[in-house]
Amino acid sequence: MTTATFSRYADLPALIGLMTGDRKHQAASASTLDVLWVLYDQVLDVAPGRTDDPDRDRFLLSKGHGPAAYYAVLAAKGFIGVRSLRDWAAFDSSLGHHPDRALIPGVEIASGSLGHGLGLGLGTALGLRAQGRTAPRTVVLVGDAELDEGSNHEAIAVAGRLGLERLTAVVIDNQSATHGWPGGIADRFTREGWAARTVDGRDHRALAEAFGAPHAGRPLAVVAAVAPR
Amino acid sequence: MTLAAGEIPAAVTAQPMRDAFAATVTQAMADDPRIAVLLADISADRFAEAAARHPGRVVNVGIREQLLIGAAGGFALTGMRPVVHTYAPFLIERPFEQIKLDLGHQGVGAVLVGIGASYDGAEMGRTHMAPGDVALLDTLPGWTVHVPGHAAEVPKLLRPALAGDGRVYVRLTERGNAAARPVGEGLVVVRAGSARSLGTVVAVGPMLDRVLAATAGLDVTVCYAATVRPFDRAGLNRVAAAAGHPDVLMVEPYLEGTSSREVAEALADRRHRQASLGVARDNEVRGYGTPADHDRAHGLDTAAIARSAREFFLT
């Protein structure tokens, strides 16, 4: 098989099945699947041949667990070989249960411990801005339970105050936070100075529109609501 | 100062290391567009001029130390050289997982510059003391640790760190030695013992003048180390081989025994004895007062070092 034959959204369940052994059920339920697809298919200015381009967009998967959907999208878009999916999580595989930037071209951060991506993303956006690189966008994916980690709120406050327009947070909300977020997740961002949209995390058109929503002078938060865990 | 007969001088000299740090970094920022300074309120006033001159390259995140290190990792991922500064316990201990993951595990570097050292802020109490900083960084690979003993050593240690891309911790203190020593080239022999000497004393950074005063009457070689990681194992081996006995007393301004493993590795090829002086590990000194009070509590004043050295080398 070639990568080209596994390059469509409809191929993602089969690609995930190469890792998990489950061809349908688990793949369709991956909470991040549709957000990742929309980002890589329509939003991010990234390509397998440009993983070192300083003007590429950055995607930081902060919620590193459950990365099968991420690897499937990376394979569909040609960043990693389809064949490499088969031995995921083996000792010498580049694909573990938490992604590692040192092992996978195009993966911007090594994640696993929760609450690190937004800080790294804020620094990335500031670093690009300090170099006058105004084009690249930095998108950080976090989970609603991951927001329990206080480190996120350090980053949310500062990104809002500094008006980091090129920073986007996408929160996968499957209502898995033990103590919940009364008043909604978007509120945590807007009161700190962000623009925020809450959309159906399975609706590709709504997600693409949310990522493209104007947010002059503010960072953007997209809350992608999916079925509760 | 007049000393009574037999009295040993305190041998501690005030050091404007924070000024030297701010001046060196501000100057380097003009020449190197990679350098960015990340602050958490501490010393923000000292970088106001640099902030005005270099928009976007001085960022004060407020009192948010997890973000301080996380953002530094992000800056480094874009190819910049972050200089990260705050009080030592809030720089190394509070955001330790960010140091481990957002710098080390991402494979990027930064220059962390801490002030306060073990107990410069003695009257602020235990929360503002960081005697465990070097031991903590020892759990991570690839860190360079500088412990200058004089303000004039600070630019010499900082400039190569700023120009590089590794992970560097610079441990500044307000209390050090009367004179700057050569830095950046491993252990420096400050006072050589005879061929029949009792052994070697390694004084780290600000401990040097106290060690020199404390061992004035002993036939030992006194070495100076302003860079402790990587440790100059080969240098210590050479010095110990040239001494009358291959015994080593390590005198460090942070947790006692922090470098015991380094000494053991350096002398693995010869039978030797070693002892370590430093901040006590076995109990928390719950006191305020002055740094000199804490020196006495931990046996790091000149008189106590003299007693310990005699006990180690003469018994």
TrEMBL record, chain A:
It comes from the Bacteria. InterPro entries: THDP-binding, Transketolase_N. Coiled coil: none annotated. GO terms for molecular function: magnesium ion binding. Residues 25-212 form the Transketolase N-terminal domain. Gene3D superfamilies: 3.40.50.970. Pfam families: Transketolase_N. PANTHER family: TRANSKETOLASE, TRANSKETOLASE N-TERMINAL SECTION-RELATED. This is Transketolase. It comes from Murinocardiopsis flavida.
TrEMBL record, chain B:
Residues 15-179 form the Transketolase-like pyrimidine-binding domain. InterPro entries: PDH/Transketolase (IPR051157), THDP-binding (IPR029061), Transketo_C/PFOR_II (IPR009014), Transketolase-like_Pyr-bd (IPR005475). One of its GO terms (molecular function) is magnesium ion binding. Gene3D superfamilies: 3.40.50.920, 3.40.50.970. It holds the Pfam family Transket_pyr. This is Transketolase subunit B. It comes from Murinocardiopsis flavida.
